[in-house]
Specification:
By secondary structure, the protein is mainly alpha-helical. It has 11 helices and 4 strands, in the order ααααααααααββββα. Strands 1-4 form a two-stranded antiparallel ribbon. It has a two-stranded antiparallel ribbon with strand order 2-3.
Length: 323
């Protein structure tokens, strides 16, 4: 009887250790099966809510910088605190907690959507249709794409795949491991606010400061784990060299390691000049090797997809070995 009880306790302990990895596996499989919701995505609804909050909190056009800072901080708190608290509460439900957590993580990650967007560009190249390739990559990046040549389109696509692999996949997985449903809720919503308000322009330089800095803090560790993932799954030596030598030159402290390591892993050259709203921006060159071509898009997609399965495998192994 004692041996049976001991075996049952060990089985329960094993299930507890594997709970988070199995929920992650379930969310990844859901994404692979279903992709992003087509009719309504919670992040779209949150974005609409954020626009209303911005309209209420932004204030007069001639508001002082300090007032704009405070209004931006208040906006972030009003949007995030209740939703993160709600996620923490629902996670504790005995009946729905696990299902809620899996569903939330499924909505937070987008490896299939990322792959599909990039594949549309690759398919346009396969058909010899450069104008369509430019059109398709325009859904992935904010730069001007109308005049890009094949290498420029490939470069923009690969940059988007690498950076969004960190923001829309690995960062969410990291915070789910660290803090469960409230962690992934905080991360993904902060990331969305940064995408909406984190611009260095006249409107958002002060109001968007809190959203941008919060996103920087939340991404600091995940970005470096993403860079390490890219390095391990490609040309490791080149990736680590590029990360060490080039990342600091990039404008974003978190995108720099991700982009430099990813470019080195794929042995392609990324960065360089890009046009944004009619203005040419000189960006540092990242990576090593040749200019990217259409065929390199599939390699970038594979790098991210393999990274997802590496994370799942590592987490499952850690759960099995724990205790």
């Amino acid at each position: 009887m004692g041996m049976l009880r001991g075996g049952m306790m060990q089985a329960v302990q094993l299930l507890n250790n594997l709970a988070v990895p199995l929920m992650i596996l379930a969310a990844v499989l859901l994404d692979r099966l279903l992709g992003e919701p087509r009719r309504f995505h919670p992040l779209v609804g949150f974005g609409n809510l954020a626009k209303r909050v911005e309209k209420l909190f932004y204030g007069a056009a001639d508001a002082a910088p300090n007032a704009r800072y405070m209004r931006g901080i208040a906006s972030v708190c009003v949007l995030l605190v209740p939703l993160v608290a709600l996620a923490a509460t629902l996670q504790q439900s005995r009946i729905f907690g696990t299902l809620f957590s899996i569903a939330l993580l499924y909505f937070a990650i987008a490896p299939r959507s990322l792959r599909e967007h990039a594949e549309r560009v690759a398919h346009a190249f396969s058909a010899g249709d450069l104008p369509d390739a430019r059109h398709q990559v325009g859904f992935m990046v904010s730069r001007d794409t109308a005049q890009l040549d094949e290498s420029g389109v490939a470069r923009a696509t690969i940059e988007s795949v690498l950076e969004n692999g960190s923001d829309a996949v690995f960062g969410a997985l990291f915070w789910f491991v660290v803090a469960g449903a409230p962690g992934v809720m905080l991360y993904r919503l902060a990331n969305t606010l940064d995408a909406m308000w984190g611009y260095r322009n006249a409107r958002y330089n002060y109001f968007g400061w809190a959203a941008a800095r919060l996103d920087d803090v939340l991404n600091f560790i995940p970005a470096r784990l993403t860079a390490l993932t890219y390095a391990l799954l490609g040309n490791t030596r080149t990736a680590l060299h590029c990360w060490r030598q080039q990342a600091h030159a990039w404008d974003s402290p978190n995108a720099g390691p991700v982009m430099a390591s990813g470019a080195g892993s794929l042995t392609v050259m990324l960065g360089g000049a890009a046009n944004y709203h009619g203005v040419s921006e000189a960006r540092p060159v990242l990576g090593a090797g040749n200019a990217p071509q259409a065929s390199d898009i599939a390699r970038a997609i594979t790098l991210v997809q393999r990274g997802v399965w590496l994370w799942v495998a590592v987490l499952l192994l850690a759960g099995l070995l724990h205790g």
